[in-house]
Write a structure and sequence with these properties.
heterotrimer, A alpha/beta (about 350), B alpha/beta (about 220), C alpha+beta (about 475), B: about 220 residues, alpha/beta, Arc Repressor Mutant, subunit A, 2 domains, 5-stranded parallel sheet, 4-stranded antiparallel sheet, 8 helices, C: alpha+beta, Heat Shock Protein 90, 3 domains, 5-stranded antiparallel sheet, 9 helices
Chain lengths: ~350, ~220, ~475
């Protein structure tokens, strides 16, 4: 794990500079771009890997040489805690956990964005002037070649997948990875969206549970598992992670299931207490610009989609950016959902 | 000739009356319209002299009634009112002529004659003396039946002389009758006209004699 | 000549048109504002009622989704419900569920309703929460938990920014319509004001057109509101007419009272002259007659002049056949001319020449000219009267063989009471020419006096011909 190496350095740096408050929430990684002596400093809190982010930061700093960017990577739950509870000082928050972002915005932790940023977006890509979408990403199924028997087509739907797993339990036993929705915000979001779309997910959970599926906190670990051969299948992985992290020669199929493929929006907001909300907005403007979009697309391969994709891939099912997302965050609803999921996964 | 004078001013009426009577006319005086109606009911007149402002009415009303009754006696209005407006009114209402007060008797006579001549209504009294015949209205004179062309002043002079044949008429008397009293007259004016008249009447048995220091008289036959 | 009277300035109030326009515009501006407020309030009320209904229904649905399970309650919040609540204008949504008076899920600090709702009736209320103005509803129900009935309170709040925005947009549109109405009202007001004031303008025009001398009552049709004004005007005109007729009567009476005694005096003097023999008495009587004659003429012309002025004010307009008038006048003067063995020669055109004006005035003018000619001409002379057409004018020329003008000009001759230095013993007041001049001026004509090279005067009078 990279962060084990980087974070002490950053922590020391942080202490030396004394610009950041003590962070109580758990961070995964952080990095500073640009001249350390720069007085104009943009702080970004994101769920995105630094590796993804670096080209964007560099391109942005190339245009604004007097700026520095401080980038903190954390899990979506930590992001929620940092902003919603601790009110940590960041200028921009980027997360794939749409529901949590929506809750932050709904609860008043986001500030209004400049009109030019908001108005350039279609209505499905923003909520009020608080929360905007910067990328569309499908949630995909990763399947190693090893999981597909000779002469068999890769599954096209969850039903195909269930049939494949039932037919070949030996191939999948203990080698299935998926998010643990109890610990992963993204995993919970993907799962609730699956459940909202189709009841197939419950049968899939039963089958995965019977095959002793392993639960992960993050996409990257599942991908590592696939590469190492520990896993033959990873269910509900962010397409962008898969594209970015799988080696080109990896014997892994990236499957967008055609019964439906949940598509999430990577969203950004400027916290209400941002010290430099203007820098946050201007970075956001850069992310939404043609150049910013191009870099994101290059960085993640085909993982980031354009709205046109929805025309030729009708199975893509976008998660709507609206307070409907809040319903699954209700503690009772979450409790009930997770208990149902656990019951499906852990049958005797 | 017989005049009906309708005039409420007694002094003026008397003097007009006397003046007309001096010339041998008969004049009945009516001081009001009522009296005038009474006179007209019983007598016939050659000419009516009508004042406008009368105690029992407006002369114009009389004029209107008079004309409406188809009476053909000529009327000369003697007006004391503004000549500008009364004139048109009275002529429109059927007056034959009008005269603004005060007036020259000579002019009154002239207008009476003109009216009578125009109307041709009054019976013409030809005056004859010696071989002269004189029509005072028509203004023509014959000597032994032969027409003589006389001008107005000559006619008037002859008329005055004929009014008292054989009597000596002083220059003053003739002046008064011939010339407007308001105009200056040269001393020899009468002599000029007498000379002219004598010439016009040449060949007549009637002659105008000069009575030295006294005046002129008409003799003849 | 006569100048129009300069009256003291009448105090001026703002014009009726201006007032009308201002009032109409103010009215429409008021209507626009009323429209704006009414639409805004109406839209807010209507949408609030609708949204309250929606909010209440959604909250009831959530309350019904609560199920009693072993060990407590279970809830499966439907995303659709929240989406629906937020859909209208992207509202913020907050919820809270209390069981047994304790918050179990949602926002623990969401304000509670001012009074407890019953199962029959939810409670709607407004509250501020997290920097937002919320519209909330509280719904009550009961749930069996561990065999005991537990009261459940479900509170859902939403912002109403979208509703406000919609109401604002509607109100703005109403305001825009109001503004357009207001803008349309401006030209419309102008039209209305014009149409409304047209009768007033027409009446004023009708009164103005008739000229100051037309003393007939105003019979122009007028709206009922203007009738009192017209009646007053007519009453005023009647009074003026009466005053004028009294003036006329006065002039006539004055003439009568001056002339009658003069006439008596004159005829008495004349009689006396006839009877008087001695020269001194005769000379005295002649002097008397001359004096009488002179004062009579002065009185005549003074009165004539007064009449001319009076009539010029009346401005009577009628067609007058000039030729016929001249012929009649010449006839009238013949006996007078005959007395001096004078000849009046008349040369009239075969065509009928007409002028428009006051016949009495025109005749007075012409009569004065002929009177002058006859008066100032020597015995046995000739007065030639010629009438010809001269463009759009009728030209009347009187040529006499009198003494001429003696070097005087028209301007000095016509000055009132002035006579030429060469009048000799001829009686005249000098007003005659003044009368002619004033008449010519009143009817747009002209007078010219020239001395003829062979002696005598040539008076030329132009009358505009009737069109």
């Amino acid at each position: 794990m990279r962060h084990a190496l980087v974070s002490p350095v950053i922590l020391i740096l942080t202490l030396l500079l004394g610009t950041l408050p003590a962070l109580a929430f758990e961070i995964e990684d952080q990095h500073s771009f640009g001249p350390p002596e720069a007085t104009n400093r943009l702080s970004i809190l994101s769920t995105t890997d630094i590796a993804f982010f670096a080209p964007l930061a560099e391109a942005f700093l190339a245009r604004n040489p007097d700026l520095a960017v401080h980038y903190v990577q954390a899990s979506s739950q930590s992001v929620q805690q940092a902003i919603g509870t601790e009110e940590a000082a960041f200028d921009l928050v980027i997360s794939t956990a749409m529901d949590l972002q929506m809750k932050l915005a709904n609860d008043g932790f986001a500030q209004g964005l400049p009109a030019d940023v908001v108005q350039s977006l279609p209505s499905w890509a923003r909520w009020r002037d608080r929360l905007v979408s910067i990328a569309l990403e499908p949630v995909v199924l990763l399947l190693a070649d090893a999981a597909i028997p000779e002469g068999r087509e890769p599954p096209r739907s969850r039903r195909d997948l269930i049939a494949l797993m039932r037919d070949h339990p030996d191939l999948f036993e203990g080698r299935i990875g998926t998010y643990d929705p109890r610990t992963s915000g993204a995993g919970y979001l993907f799962l609730t969206q699956d459940a909202r779309t189709s009841d197939t997910i419950w049968r899939l959970a039963e089958v995965m549970g019977r095959l002793n599926a392993r639960l992960y906190c993050c996409s990257s670990q599942m991908i590592e598992g696939l590469i190492s051969g520990d896993l033959v299948m990873a269910y509900n992985v962010l397409g962008s992670y898969a594209s970015a992290n799988l080696p080109p020669d990896a014997a892994v199929h990236v499957v967008t299931l055609q019964d439906f493929t949940v598509t999430l929006q990577r969203t950004a907001l400027v916290p209400a207490n941002a010290p430099r909300g203007d820098l946050g907005a201007s970075f956001l403007r850069f992310l939404l610009s043609d150049r910013g979009q191009q870099i994101q697309a290059d960085a993640v391969g085909q993982g980031v989609m354009r709205p046109e994709s929805f025309v030729n891939q009708p199975w893509l099912r976008p998660i709507r950016l609206d307070p409907g997302l809040l319903s699954t965050l209700d503690s009772m609803t979450r409790r009930r959902f997770l208990s149902e999921w656990a019951a499906a996964m852990e049958q005797p | 000739m017989r005049f009906l004078l309708i005039e409420d001013n007694a002094d003026l009426a008397r003097s007009i009356r006397e003046r007309l009577e001096m010339d041998g006319h008969a004049v009945d005086h009516a001081p009001s319209l009522g009296d005038a109606e009474d006179h007209l009911a019983v007598a016939r007149y050659d000419l009516i002299l009508l004042d406008i402002t009368l105690p029992d009415g407006d002369g114009r009303t009389f004029l209107q009634r008079h004309r409406a009754a188809q009476a053909d006696t000529p009327v000369i209005v003697l007006t004391a009112r503004s000549a500008v407006s009364d004139r048109v009114d009275t002529l429109d209402l059927g007056a034959d002529d009008y005269l603004t007060k005060p007036f020259d008797f000579a002019e009154l006579e002239a207008r009476c004659r003109a009216v009578l001549r125009r109307r041709g209504g009054a019976a013409t009294t030809l005056r004859r003396y010696a071989d002269l015949t004189f029509d005072p209205l028509g203004g023509f004179v014959t000597v032994a039946g032969e027409n003589r062309d006389l001008r107005n002043r000559e006619l008037r002079l002859l008329e005055v002389l004929l009014s008292a044949p054989g009597r000596i008429l002083s220059k003053d008397q003739l002046n008064d009758r011939l010339f407007s009293l308001s105009e200056p007259v040269s001393d020899n004016a009468i002599e000029v006209y007498v000379a002219r008249l004598r010439k016009k009447l040449e060949g007549s048995s009637a002659r105008i004699e000069t009575v030295r220091g006294l005046g002129y008289r008409l003799t003849g036959g | 000549m006569r100048r129009p009277l300069r009256l003291p300035a009448t105090p001026r109030l703002p014009s009726l048109r201006k007032r009308l326009i201002v009032q109409l515009i103010a009215l429409s501006a008021g209507l626009a504002v009323v429209l704006y407020v009414a639409v805004r309030l109406g839209a807010e009320r209507a949408s609030e009622a609708t949204l309250d209904g929606l909010l209440g229904a959604a909250t009831s649905t959530i309350a019904e989704e609560l199920r009693s399970v072993e060990g407590g309650a279970e809830l499966d919040l439907s995303p659709g419900t929240f989406s629906m609540l937020a859909a209208m204008g992207e509202e913020r949504i907050f919820h809270r569920i209390d069981i047994n008076g304790l918050p179990v899920t949602g926002y623990d600090d969401l304000p509670r309703p001012p009074q407890e709702p019953t199962a029959l009736e939810p409670v709607f209320y407004d509250a501020d929460y997290r920097d937002a103005e919320l519209r909330l509803v509280a719904v009550a129900r009961s749930l069996m938990i561990e065999n005991r009935a537990a009261p459940v309170l479900v509170i859902v709040g939403q912002t109403r920014d979208g509703q406000r925005a919609v109401a604002q947009a509607l109100a703005n549109r109403a305001a825009l319509i109001g503004l357009m109405v207001f803008l349309i009202a401006i030209p419309f007001s102008l039209l209305v004001a014009r149409a409304f004031l047209r009768p007033v303008g027409r009446l004023a025009e009708a009164v103005g057109r008739r000229g100051g001398h037309d003393l007939r009552p105003v019979r122009h049709p007028a709206p009922a509101e203007l009738m009192p004004l017209v009646e007053q005007l007519n009453a005023f005109i009647a009074r003026l007419r009466q005053t004028l007729s009294q003036t006329e009567t006065f002039i006539a009476e004055a003439a009568h009272h001056i002339r009658t005694p003069l006439a008596t005096l004159r005829s008495e003097a004349e009689m006396a002259l006839r009877q008087a023999g001695d020269e001194p008495t005769r000379a005295r009587l002649r002097g008397m007659i001359r004096a009488t004659e002179e004062s009579a003429r002065s009185a005549n012309q003074l009165l004539d002049h007064a009449t001319v002025l009076f009539r010029a004010e009346q401005f009577t307009q009628e067609r007058v056949d000039i030729g016929a008038m001249i012929a009649a006048l010449a006839d009238r003067f013949r006996p007078t001319a005959d007395l001096k063995d004078m000849e009046i020669r008349l040369d009239l055109p075969s065509e009928r020449l007409e002028t428009t004006g006051d016949a009495v005035l025109i005749e007075a003018a012409v009569r004065n000219l002929i009177d002058n000619a006859v008066k100032y001409s020597p015995e046995e002379s000739e007065v030639a009267i010629t009438l010809t057409r001269d463009g759009t004018f009728a030209r009347l020329t009187l040529r006499d063989h009198g003494r001429g003008l003696g070097g005087e000009t028209l301007a000095t001759l016509s000055r009132r009471f002035r006579r030429g230095p060469n009048v000799g013993g001829v009686i005249g007041s000098g007003l005659g020419l003044t009368i002619v001049l004033e008449t010519a001026a009143a009817m747009g004509g002209r007078l010219e006096l020239t001395e003829h090279e062979e002696g005598g005067t040539c008076a030329t009078l132009w009358f505009p011909l009737s069109s």
